[in-house]
Amino acid sequence: MRQTRSPDACPALVLNADFRPLSYYPLSLWSWQEAVKSVFLDRVNIIQTYDKQVHSPSLNMNLPSVVALKNYVSPARYPAFTRFNLFLRDKFSCQYCGSADDLTFDHVIPRSKGGLTRWDNVVAACAPCNLRKSNMMPEVAGMIPMQKPFRPTVFHLHKNGRLFPPNYLHESWLDYLYWDTELEE
Description:
This protein has 6 helices and 6 strands, in the order E-E-H-E-E-H-E-E-H-H-H-H. The model is unreliable at 180-185 (pLDDT under 50). It is of the alpha+beta class. The protein has helices at 32-40, 83-89, 127-133, 138-141, 154-161, 181-184; strands spanning 12-15, 29-30, 44-56, 59-69, 103-107, 122-126. A hairpin with a 2-residue loop joins strand 3 and strand 4.
């Protein structure tokens, strides 16, 4: 018995005009509706398709599995400072003990001592380490971050994003994605 795939289970991988994903983490995916709409608005080229079709009174169309933008979108050099981007920069691990559980972020120089919420003063920290460090300076607390905080580039975050492949990768996407193969085994 052949299993029918729902259109909702058919996202399209979105590539820039240079055939690189717009982002790796999260992976740049569009719903099948967004992909089809972009095809009809002539914003993308279809690179690969699923076997699943959608139908209208005048058209049968295989759903796109990989699309490429017709116009190159120049990525920002530096990403926005967000909790997610900070965790991605720090590879989703506490910079004091290495734990990946219950992550928060910590001001290396505490705000109470004039520390600012900026890339170069904030690190990922698990809740227990954050509580233990409290509002102390790193040397006083005996807690020096494993990696000195820094402002990452988009390319740095893309590189780190490749360390965390999604649970599902359609076979038609694999020629356009470059994951660290030692982690896939």
